[in-house]
Amino acid sequence: MFSKHVTKDISAYCHGELSSEESKLFAEHIISCVKCRTKFEEIKLGIKFAEQLPQLSAPDSLWQEVDSLLGSESSPVRTMWSRRDLAIAAAVIVVFSVGIVWVYNSRRLPQNAWLVTRLVGAPRIGSETISSRGSLAIGEWLETDGNSRARIAVGSIGNVEIDPNTRVRLVATQPTEHRLELAHGKMSASIWAPPRLFFVDTPSAVAADLGCAYTLEVNDQGSGRLRVTTGWVALQAKERESIVPAGASCETEPGRGPGTPYFDDSTAEFQNALRNFDKDPAGRMDAVASILNQSRAKDTLTLWHLLPRVNDEVRARVYEKMAGFVAPPQGVTCEGVLALDHKMLEQWRHSLETVWLPGGGKGILKKGLKAWNKVE
Ligand SMILES: [Zn+2]
What is the C-alpha to C-alpha distance for residues 213 and 190, in angstroms, rounded to an integer? Predict the structure, then answer.
């Protein structure tokens, strides 16, 4: 049923009305079809907007006006409504419509709790110990000690495993957004859903799922480390975003936000130089020289992220190194990249993705499907 475009099923998907098998096929199509994904993003935004609309009520004076208009049914005035009266009537209709949309959506929200399964030891939800299964409601903390582990089912879109000595809280679960907070410890997520439905808040950045599997660690100082095993994750804080593909990691620090992502198989010298650069981007030009020296073609992942994080002079050197590995596609100019033209940077990133991930988008899809099958 999902071999063709799925635009007519988007609303059902967003409201959790598809079966688990249908959701899986839907997600598979959305990841690979730009047309349906664009429509999906639009509808998701619309639903999100409707969810956030306040329930408005009309002031008493407005109702009195309406009453007096209706009360004068026999009056010829009723057949000759002034513009002002029409405006009032229109306002009443808008107020009603907003109320209906709000009630409609709030009635269709799924149950606001996630199933938690004990894997080992004695995990706790709030002050209660879980014997085999428990339910994590919005606002509740799930905590493991040094000897316990647990698994959380994220609606029908995946699983999160919680390691020992970890503390997580369910922040939100809605058709358009599932959100956990990781205060400290380590979690592994396997998510198969259209991008940007599952988020994890950490003290210094938010991990946004782009269809993937990953581990996320936060230490007692609030520093985090993301390691992606399948697909993509975006690590975000304020205006900064790092896009991390499978096989790569990214660190994040309180006050600084996400650092520059790197492939796990890059040299130790490369990774050390990058750490030094992230600590002091303005002062570590020697670090950039070392990064450029040690770069391989796939390390254009790191170099692409460096472009907006270095000064003009260094940016020209980073550009030169990158262009030596992968020439910019048609329409992407040196001047544009050096001026940080957003469209050109994105265009170049898309062509670089084939170097970052063997098999390009198709490979990601395959791996993502595997991860999905594993979590079920
Ligand atoms: Zn499609």
Answer: 4
